[in-house]
């Protein structure tokens, strides 16, 4: 078996010495492996912007965003937290959530807002009576069912009056006395623990 002769050339870009048994390009186009993949010689070349960071600003909150490329136009550029807000979020439920039995509606402009949500009973009462529920006032559910927001079931009370009503046991058809009471599971568990 005969050995092939090793040829030696220099890279035209960096001058690195290249040793091989054959060259498929002429001497004036001979390049080492790293130089042959630089710039526009690389098949994945994107016109020189691949490594450069560009800066845009979020249209909602104004924060600075830097990236190598943007998929959307300048008018649609948003930071990741703004993309997750509202209808763009995959967990969006139409602006309505249930927290501890109370139905909350998304109303960020409301004066009694808590984390952008307002109790639906407040909105119903305010729509009928034409004024906001003031600080120190509460909406009482007459039948004790927290998601029953019809106006006949809602009564405006002072906070102290509402507390004394619930703590004195004088609630009208509230709690276990109400056949439609839905939130009594915990009471049943604690009663079983006390009996044992």
Describe the structure.
The chain has 196 residues and is α+β, with helices and mostly antiparallel strands. It folds into three domains: 1-32, no CATH class; 54-88, no CATH class; 96-195, no CATH class. Helices cover 18% and strands 19% of the residues. The chain has four helices and nine strands. The chain has helices at 80-83, 120-129, 159-168, 185-195; strands spanning 7-10, 17-20, 54-57, 64-67, 96-99, 102-106, 117-119, 137-141, 154-158. Strands 5-6-7 form a three-stranded antiparallel sheet. Strands 1-2 form a two-stranded antiparallel sheet. A hairpin with a 6-residue loop joins β1 (7-10) and β2. The longest helix has 11 residues, at 185-195.
Summarize the helices and strands and which ones pair or pack.
Layout: E1 7-10, E2 17-20, E3 54-57, E4 64-67, H1 80-83, E5 96-99, E6 102-106, E7 117-119, H2 120-129, E8 137-141, E9 154-158, H3 159-168, H4 185-195
Antiparallel strand pairs: 1-2, 3-4, 5-6, 6-7, 8-9
Features:
single chain, 196 residues, alpha+beta, 3 domains, 3-stranded antiparallel beta sheet, two-stranded antiparallel sheet, 19% strand, rod-shaped
Concise synopsis of the structure shown:
The chain is of the alpha+beta class. It has helices at 80-83, 120-129, 159-168, 185-195, and strands at 7-10, 17-20, 54-57, 64-67, 96-99, 102-106, 117-119, 137-141, 154-158. The strands form four sheets. It has a three-stranded antiparallel sheet. It has a two-stranded antiparallel ribbon with strand order 1-2. It has a two-stranded antiparallel sheet with strand order 3-4.
